[in-house]
From TrEMBL:
Organism: Candidatus Anaerostipes excrementavium
InterPro entries: Glyco_hydro/deAcase_b/a-brl, NODB_dom, Polysacch_Deacetylase
Top-level taxonomy: Bacteria, Bacillati, Bacillota, Clostridia, Lachnospirales
Keyword Calcium annotated: no
PANTHER family according to UniProt: POLY-BETA-1,6-N-ACETYL-D-GLUCOSAMINE N-DEACETYLASE (PTHR34216:SF3), PTHR34216
Residue span(s) of domain NodB homology: 14-270
Name of this chain's protein: Polysaccharide deacetylase family protein
């Protein structure tokens, strides 16, 4: 019987993504490090705090700079003003999400569909609320210490915070050659932590070692979400002699050890 596996783009089985919260001015340095090394990240912003300095140890980025600063990465929501959502009425949470989305979409020029939960608080009612607000996924703060794909996109566990044995996890990720399952290395944190902890060299070392590798797909959170959904929607012949891709995006699969690119809208026979 033919064996078919889903791959990441170009037939890869490894992907790496980063996710950073709050939108502080230290994102400027972090993005410079990522860009130098070919890494991509998702930045969850509180649009209600754009340009704020008073009462904050590290100021927020301005609305005027956001479009250029985050270009090539993903702008995602973190609510407008960072409340603890479990203590809020759903009407308030609804306003926080939608107001953040509307502002961020005016800046980015695309639908904002990503989310991370302020203070890490999440639950089934919030999953339902995100879904009704057009949000595709929600990242939580509990680390898995693994390289798994999410079982639930509304409770998307990262691999680790950058303070949690980052380089050890990277070495394990790079050294693993077991291609029977897809591997996703997902790092999260706050860029201002590098400034407060005086350890920017940690991210610089990580990015240099992790970046510019042909074997890794570097993607934002929403790119990973969209790609996996497209892969799920492939329609196979009953005897597996072919497949139809009803979506617009190309999807890569491995069939009996050979890599195939299934173009959007096309039917492919093996």
């Amino acid at each position: 019987m033919r064996r078919i596996y889903t791959c990441f783009p170009e037939g890869r089985f490894k992907a790496l993504t980063l996710s950073y919260d709050d939108g502080k001015i230290t994102d400027r340095r972090l993005i410079d490090v990522l860009n130098q090394n070919g890494l991509k990240g998702t930045f969850h912003l509180n649009s209600g705090y754009f340009g704020e300095t008073k009462g904050h140890r590290v100021p927020y980025v301005t609305r005027e700079e956001a479009a250029d600063l985050y270009r090539g990465h993903e702008i995602a929501s973190h609510t407008s003003t960072h409340p603890t959502m479990a203590r809020m009425p759903m009407e308030g949470n609804l306003q926080e999400i939608l107001e953040d989305r509307k502002t961020l979409e005016e800046i980015s020029g695309y639908p904002v569909r990503g989310f991370s939960y302020p203070n890490g608080v999440h639950g089934e009612k919030l999953y339902q609320l995100l879904r009704s607000c057009g949000i595709a996924y929600g990242r939580i703060t509990k680390s898995s210490k693994r390289f798994d794909l999410p079982n639930c996109f509304y409770a998307w566990k990262p691999t680790c915070h950058h303070k949690e044995q980052l380089m050890e996890h990277l070495d394990r990720f790079l050294d693993t050659e077991y291609d029977q399952r897809l591997m996703l290395f997902y790092v999260w944190g706050h860029s201002y932590e590098f400034e407060l902890d005086h350890n920017w060299e940690l991210m610089e070392e990580f990015a240099k070692k992790a970046g510019h590798r042909d074997s890794i797909w570097y993607a934002t959170n929403i790119e990973i979400y969209d790609y996996l959904k497209c892969a799920e929607n492939l329609v196979y012949f009953a005897d597996l002699h072919g497949v139809h891709n009803p979506g617009a995006k190309d999807v890569w699969i491995q069939a009996d050890g050979e890599i195939h690119r299934i173009q959007g809208g096309q039917t492919y026979l093996f």
